[in-house]
Amino acid sequence: MTERRRTRGEHQKALAEKNKKKKNKPTSSAKTWFKRIFLAILAIGVAGFIGGAGLFAYYASTAPELDEELLKDPVSSEFYDKNGELFATIGAENRKYIKYEDIPEDMVNAILATEDVRFFEHHGMDFYRLGGAILANFRDGFGAQGASTLTQQVVKNSFLQNEKKLKRKAQEAWLAFQLERKYSKEEIFEMYFNKMLMSGRIYGFGTAAQYFYGKELKDLTLDEEALLAGLVQRPNAYNPLKNPELAKKRRNTVLGLMYQHGKISKAEMEEAKKVEVQAGLADDATRQSFAGSKYDAFLDVVINELEENGDGTAMAEGIKVYTTLDPDAQKVVENVMNDDSNFPTEEIQSGVAVIDTKTGAIQAVGGGRHYGAERGWNYADDLKKNQPGSTMKPLVDYGPAIEYLNWSTGQTLVDEPMNYTGTKQTITNWDGRYMGAMTARKALYASRNVPAVKALQEVGTEKAKEFVGNLGIKTDDLYESDAIGGGAITISPIQMAASYAAFGNNGVYTDPHAISKIVYRDGKTSKNYTPESKVAMSDYTAYMVTDMLRDVVGNKPDASGTAANVPGLDIAGKTGTTNYSAEDFNKYNLPNTSVPDSWFAGYTTNYSIAIWSGYEKHFDPITTWEERRLPQNLFKSIMQEISANVETASFKKPNSVVEATIEVGSKPLKLASDYTPSELRQTELFVRGTEPKEVSTVYEAPELSTPYNVSASLDLEAQSINISWEHDAIVDPETDEPLPTSFEVTATRDDGQTFALGTTESKGLTVGNTLEDGNYTISVVAIMDGTRSEPGTTTFQITSTSEEDLETEEPDEPEIDLPIDPGQEDNGNNNGNGENGNNGNGNNHNNNGNGQGNNGNGGDPGNNNDGNLQPTTPTEPTNPTEEDQSTE
């Protein structure tokens, strides 16, 4: 029997059933995979939980034991100088301990609202807050927000080091749980209240109340309690003595949190926010009761640096801080700052920073006169809003011009009236004068304002901003007025000294730092604070700026910083003063000599020092030159003493710099010629390859003057001719000495024949008499570098004498003349031809005719050929008919 064949319809139905099964199969498979993934995640989670629990248990087992003494007292931190010697310990010293029952309720509420609002509800860990912190860390990155309770903070500051590591967090949580089991909430709060670092070296809220307000806790107002509660997060940043604006913002945040959590009313909050943040602060005299340490001003800088590096609260954990302090330099600075005889007035203040030129390490700090722990304002570090005046000129103007434009120190600039770009504001100089064309060197050492602004205009504000940025000076804006230090840039003495140090360190800059490293409580874990150095400018820029700044403290006319010079030290530096506006002069009725700030920054190869001077209140002005020069005088005293026993090398010119003597005022610069006047000749520095090749032709060779007072005489005995003359030589413009000049002497006879007598560099010549009889013209010509003068001349006659001429005949009737005194001679008979005579030689020969000599100088008696003619014996009379042999 044959099998029945399926119809087309049956076949299609069977095919449809098959496809339906295939469609249902993937759904079943997806469910299977979902189940597998869920089980895998669950398994991983269980394993992670078990592993995490095990790791937590391991970390907890290695946690230190609770120690009641450590819980109640701050752990002291130690500070070491650059030699590794301990100079300060800060911790439980001078702390006022407060019992819980003596803490005002508003003070408790302020702290809880700010730091741990559920403190009395949790058991050491606040899991609600922890969840929020985890979300914040996922959103903003690990460490973005913490969730530490008061209990955890007590544990951390008592036993653990300040680091965000899993081990520390696990131990912190475990110890917090243990602390909650062993002590009551009130006891834990008391520990926190007395343990926390409040500012600088102030620990505990009770001590802070005395330090900042001079009050007991019970006498504090709501706004004061809120301010103290806010300090804990950033103790130094929120210090109302130093940073009132930040302190006010933080105080108002605490007041807002108190209102948010129902601790105060809205009216109370708003009323407290209206109070000026510095209104109730204690004065210096009140804070003097808090004993300081050695080197308080330097220690303040160290504490600020810890704050800036995120270790502001680490001092409460017992760290060791290794600093860059040079105790010898610090003592020098403090001795100078504490000697009132160094200051022109009782109230004027100064801030001093001494930095290692090569490393940027802060060696010493002068925070103010008689600085102590009670002071809240450190003029070396906290003075960051004052304009720097002309100390900015090397940084903003001339440094960038050399770096980016390859300017020479001889670059021609014109000091002339001008306005700031796009304004009608005239740029003036300190003396109200304009000095015309000058070199960049002179413009800088004489501190001229107009050339400085022109230099910035040439280089551009963007390049100038880049240049100062490489020197640690960050600014969002830079204006033309910053060319003379009166714009947007403000700076502290510490930063100023560090920026200038780069000029003395071949262009290498290092951020100023007072800490080299810190070591945590375990003695093993450390953190390096030493910054890396970087090349901020070319070595030629550094040296050329330095060489110009040498002249600031030199002895050139118009140099502005001569009072800072220390004999024997190679020093470069710059002065600076700031100005009040015209509106300020009118508003505060200021004397016309008033300035608010005076600066000096200078350096050697070892030390860079910056000093500010002024008054605590901005509108208490500096009015005298003695006050203005105070930074220079302090600089000299400090630099001289700290350099006394230290070898100080001179600044070394790099191979990238060459010298050339230019003609001042030439544009473009040209080499000085041999004839450039001395006052316009200047040897300046150039970036190698940019020095000028062309010689100036502005000044031509001067015309040689003609020799004058030429005279000639015959020496019969020596048979020689003596010739002399005078001449005004050309002066060397560099040395102001006569230039070497030679003289060519010739004799020309009446018949035109010329005889060379010789050449000499003297103003006289003696030659043997080889000339024949005749009338001669003696000529003297001056010669210099191939240039010949017009001849200076005189006439001269030579006549031979034969034996026949010398014979005499006996007279028929001899006449005897008696000797007479030469002074009684008939002057008329002894004149000779004196008007033609030289040096008493009459017509230049004497044995022909009048034996008494031919008197020179117009026939002055006794001025004859030998200068001492004695009376003679009578001679044989001559025949009256014989020819008279006297010459004319």
TrEMBL record:
Keywords: Carboxypeptidase, Glycosyltransferase, Hydrolase, Membrane, Multifunctional enzyme, Protease, Transferase, Transmembrane, Transmembrane helix. It catalyses: Preferential cleavage: (Ac)2-L-Lys-D-Ala-|-D-Ala. Also transpeptidation of peptidyl-alanyl moieties that are N-acyl substituents of D-alanine; [GlcNAc-(1->4)-Mur2Ac(oyl-L-Ala-gamma-D-Glu-L-Lys-D-Ala-D-Ala)](n)-di-trans,octa-cis-undecaprenyl diphosphate + beta-D-GlcNAc-(1->4)-Mur2Ac(oyl-L-Ala-gamma-D-Glu-L-Lys-D-Ala-D-Ala)-di-trans,octa-cis-undecaprenyl diphosphate = [GlcNAc-(1->4)-Mur2Ac(oyl-L-Ala-gamma-D-Glu-L-Lys-D-Ala-D-Ala)](n+1)-di-trans,octa-cis-undecaprenyl diphosphate + di-trans,octa-cis-undecaprenyl diphosphate + H(+). Residues 819-833, 862-880 have a biased composition (Low complexity). Residues 1-28, 788-888 are annotated as: Disordered. Residues 1-18 have a biased composition (Basic and acidic residues). Residues 850-861 have a biased composition (Gly residues). InterPro entries: Beta-lactam/transpept-like, FN3_dom, FN3_sf, Glyco_trans_51, Glycosyltr_51/Transpeptidase, Lysozyme-like_dom_sf, PBP_transglycosylase, PCN-bd_Tpept. PROSITE patterns: FN3. Residues 706-804 form the Fibronectin type-III domain. The chain crosses the membrane at residues 37-60. Residues 790-799 have a biased composition (Polar residues). Signal peptide: none annotated. Residues 802-818 have a biased composition (Acidic residues). The keyword Membrane applies. The keyword Transport does not apply. It holds the Pfam family Transpeptidase. It comes from the Bacteria. NCBIfam families: PBP_1a_fam. This is PBP1A family penicillin-binding protein. It comes from Lysinibacillus irui. The lineage of its organism: Bacteria, Bacillati, Bacillota, Bacilli, Bacillales.
